[in-house]
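R.M. (postdoc): so does anyone remember the format we settled on? I'll just put the structure tokens first.
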């Protein structure tokens, strides 16, 4: 039974990473896992349960970003550089899956959408936190950091425009520092 469940989770993860969540069907998962649709539903009564298991499976094989490590750096610019470097490394390593997930965000179960939003908010809070200034300046810094931590910003700069992760980190750090002035 555990092996069957694992095959279903692996099939869902494979399809999410290749065709994306929006194009992944229970029929396709069942075929790839070599089970019936009913078997998929027995193990996962709804899409949210299947997606949560698939996400946990994928994440277990990734080197996830470590916001706690970023927070231990007090210098604002250094914290920003190290956080962006960690995020951009993660984005590059998981780019195939992440591009599909973020492209299909609107069709993900609400719980998964909330997790992704919270992760972005946490990254912004930690990376923008040490920057001071007046309200208007803090708002600009928060907006610049929010843009810098977004997957699609990394994708545009690195996957589409050909910058290295390091070049993108330096560019986005300069943008945030300009917003802080």
């Amino acid at each position: 039974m555990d092996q069957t469940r694992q095959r279903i989770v692996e099939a869902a993860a494979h399809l999410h990473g290749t065709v994306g969540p929006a194009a992944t069907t229970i029929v396709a998962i069942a075929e790839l896992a070599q089970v019936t649709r009913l078997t998929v539903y027995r193990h996962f009564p709804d899409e949210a349960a299947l997606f949560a298991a698939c996400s946990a499976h994928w994440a277990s094989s990734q080197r996830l970003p470590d916001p706690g490590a970023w927070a231990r750096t007090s210098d604002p610019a250094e914290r920003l550089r190290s956080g962006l470097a960690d995020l951009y490394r993660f984005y590059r390593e998981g780019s195939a899956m992440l591009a599909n997930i973020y492209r299909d965000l609107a069709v993900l179960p609400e719980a998964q959408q909330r997790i992704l939003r919270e992760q972005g908010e946490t990254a912004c809070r930690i990376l923008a936190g040490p920057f001071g200034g007046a309200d208007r300046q803090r708002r600009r810094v928060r907006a610049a950091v929010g843009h810098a931590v977004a997957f699609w910003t990394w994708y545009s700069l690195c996957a589409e425009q050909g910058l290295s992760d390091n070049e993108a980190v330096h560019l986005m750090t300069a943008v945030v520092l300009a917003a802080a002035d």
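R.M.: ...and that's the designed sequence above, right after the tokens. Also worth knowing: The domain at 2-60 is CATH 1.10.10.60 (Arc Repressor Mutant, subunit A). The chain is about 75% helix and 0% strand.
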